[in-house]
């Protein structure tokens, strides 16, 4: 039988807090101990494992304090602490609440997750879901560098190889205009018909903006961007106010445009569909609470997989 390592939850917790906070001082504040106390726990852990887990040289602040071995150890450390918590809860009351932190885009929170979380709380009253709004890029960064973030829900353009993707649904693109705009009735509508119009698009760097840019550039066209913003609902209101026309992905059922004086027309496959789903850290086992939430969002409990 292999020899068991003698490491403590305090040592591993110090390491995880350093990864989350980014420096020793902040980690000490988060753990309510001295900076030297954090350093002692980390040195003891490194001594047990026989590797260097974090950078110790002074100088300019690094984007991430962990060494390559530290980043490799992080998912195991998270699993170690999660298992330790589970052991501590063996004799706890079954009704004790648990919390999972989920980060998602504004669009998915507004039109998918608010209702889903409401129904999840009814089915699992002992598990609380804490939602935070971020951009796609911020969601990936949070999952990679903040151990407290359990799950991301987003439409990634090209997700990190350190993250796994579980598909939820896809959305095709539509043209949104004033109710009687001539383009709503034009036969064989193409992207070339939209080049000279002042388009209201998603901001630069977003997945949606990249999809639109790819489609236009693929036909050798350059769209005329009149305005840009972060939120689909804001875009619809801007179109309603007569500030331009827009190209946005719309969910079936018309929830986004309902009640607004706008017209819509499907663009079919002129622009690649937006794929939305769940992002989790690769090789980082989900807690029982997080697994319950992902299984609730995806009936059948499909495993994380590459995007379609």
Description:
With 308 residues, the protein is an alpha/beta fold. It folds into three domains: 9-88, Winged helix-like DNA-binding domain superfamily/Winged helix DNA-binding domain (Arc Repressor Mutant, subunit A), CATH 1.10.10; 98-169 and 275-297, Periplasmic binding protein-like II (D-Maltodextrin-Binding Protein, domain 2); 173-272, 3-Layer(aba) Sandwich (D-Maltodextrin-Binding Protein, domain 2). Helix content is 38%, strand content 19%. The chain is built from nine helices and ten strands. It has a five-stranded mixed beta sheet with strand order 2-1-3-10-4, with helices on both faces. Strands 7-6-8-5-9 form a five-stranded mixed beta sheet, with helices on both faces. Strand 1 (98-104), helix 5 (106-123) and strand 2 (127-133) form a beta-alpha-beta unit. Helix 1 (9-21) crosses helix 2 (24-31). The chain is elongated. The two termini are 43 Å apart.
